[in-house]
Amino acid sequence: MGACPDYRASRQWSRREWLRVGATWLSGLSLPRLLAAESNSAARHAPRGLILLNCFGGPSHLDTWDMKPDGPSAIRGAFTAIPTSIPGEIVCEHLPGLARIAKHLTFVRSVTHDRNVHGGAVGFALTGTRTADPGIPGVRGPDASAEDHPAIGATVTRIAPARGDLPSAVTLPWDLIDGQDRFVPGQTGGLLGRAYDPWFVRGDPNATEFRVDGLAPPPGVSLERMDLRRGLRDALVEQQRRLEETAGTRSLDAYYAQAFDLLTSAATRAAFELADETPALRERYGRNTLGQSCLLARRLIEAGVRVVQVNASGSLFGDYGWDTHGDNFNTLKDKLLPRFDPAFSTLIDDLQARGRWADTLVVCLGEFGRTPKISTNAGREHWPQCYTVLFAGAGMRQGFVYGRSDAQGAYPAESPVTPEDIVATIYDTLGIPPSTLLRDAAGREHPLVRGRVLTELFA
User: Fold this and answer.
1) What share of the chain is helix, strand, coil (3-state, %, to 5)?
2) Which residue, 337, 327, 338, is CA-closest to 380?
3) What is the rounded CA–CA span in Å between residue 178 and residue 395?
4) Exposed / middle / buried, residue 386 (Cβ in 10 Å: 0-12, 13-18, 19+)
5) Strands 387-392 and 360-365, how do they pair?
6) What is the three-class DSSP state of 388?
């Protein structure tokens, strides 16, 4: 394979003026759909969509949804447990919404793996396949690579793309960047090629000035827009030449008009019009980046997008980062859980109220949990040995707990589950056999995922 693309450079390059209209196309809006046309006859168009809520940094399972209130103080932490709508099950006091909707969820409390570095763990969690470079604990994480397994959205784009004017997969509202400014694995088309990257929508949906580049012309620049279109056409020709040289892809000439129509379609614009929602519903989700991103995810799925990944954080720390090495309890209480709880619980309520429950799978995960023992600075360290993943909708059992951690929340005590199993179950639910073989640009075959489908989770 060739050298890995510089994803950080591509983010800077996409800001160039001439790409106001067309950068999104090149980064994965319509190109994946068009290049996937050759596989449409073999695609399995399952009616289900996926909303993947990714809590980047690794949420503390012990302080959220797998509490140990009877454990020693060095383990149980500062929070009180409250009952949920599942008899005998508890969650953190700062998750009242989750406690209420628990009867609609499946908790998988025995997920385990061996990747202790964020990038390697994220790549494993989001693709079900270990990255070739695991990173070095305490030193560095791996960069995204053209040899990585594809993101779930990229696979869906390749095998079972959406129909209509919208993209098959969207990731928002920010990229995953580790503490050393590395673009984390598991977000792109990987070995399938950049053509299958999900469409990255970068921006805060809660901002009054939020807009998606390319979906509407800047005010008063119609002539300039025509010039931009010509510039885009020239860029597409150059992109076509590079693609044909590196990946042997078919000509894009026949698809140019369709690709540009996709960028400017009424359906695409309408899906992003959060102002069409009632102020009361927007308040229920939370007037913040995460809350409005979850609402936007519901709108995109409802419009026909197959996979929407909401990154609850784009970096490890700050107001949305879950990497709580220090001040774990205040960070969870004051920043993370007050945003997460209304966003997630309202998403579940909203999908049910709008009749999308049966055909939308919701998965909430992080790349690992946190250590049972609290550190001297009131934090918890990385802990991939045991953590929890949440499932909902799309035929999943409701009010169900699968697996169990031990008394300290340190290791699975029952029914261990790996990221391979989690991802295999997601693919199966979306109608894609986990045994599917992928072909990279060189024609080599790769198993999609080697995990076991967790049929126990299905109703």
Assistant:
1) 40, 15, 45
2) 327
3) 34
4) buried
5) antiparallel
6) strand
134-159 pLDDT, tens digit per residue, is: 899 888 999 999 999 999 999 999 99
CA 412, 418, 424, 429 torsion-angle sign? positive
Residue 140: give its domain's CATH number: 3.40.720.10
Q: How far apart are CA 214 and CA 182, in angstroms?
A: 27
CA atoms within a 13 Å half-sphere pointing along the CA-CB vector of 47: 7
Pairing of strands 49-54, 307-311: parallel
pLDDT tens digits, one per residue of 43-79: 333 559 999 999 999 999 999 999 999 999 899 999 9
Q: Classify burial at 93, counting beta carbons within 10 Å of its beta carbon; exposed 0-12, middle 13-18, buried 19 or more.
A: middle
Helix ranges restricted to H, 304-436: 328-331, 337-353, 419-429
442 falls within a domain: yes
What SS3 class is residue 210? coil
**Residue 196 has which token pair?**
């299958």
Distance CA 316, CA 181 (A): 11
Total structural domains in the chain?
1
Decide if 1 is inside a domain: no
In a domain, 2, yes or no: no
Pairing of strands 437-439, 445-447: antiparallel
449: in domain: yes
Rounded to an integer, what distance in angstroms lies between the CA atom of residue 23 and that of residue 131?
28
Specify whether the CB–CB gap between 455 and 397 falls below 8 A.
no
What is the residue range of 137's domain? Answer: 7-457
Within 93-221, where are the H helices?
96-101, 118-127, 152-159
User: Do residues 51 and 298 touch, judged by C-beta distance below 8 A?
Assistant: yes
Tokens representing residue 132 in the block: 């070739």
Pairing outcome for strands 105-111 and 400-402: parallel
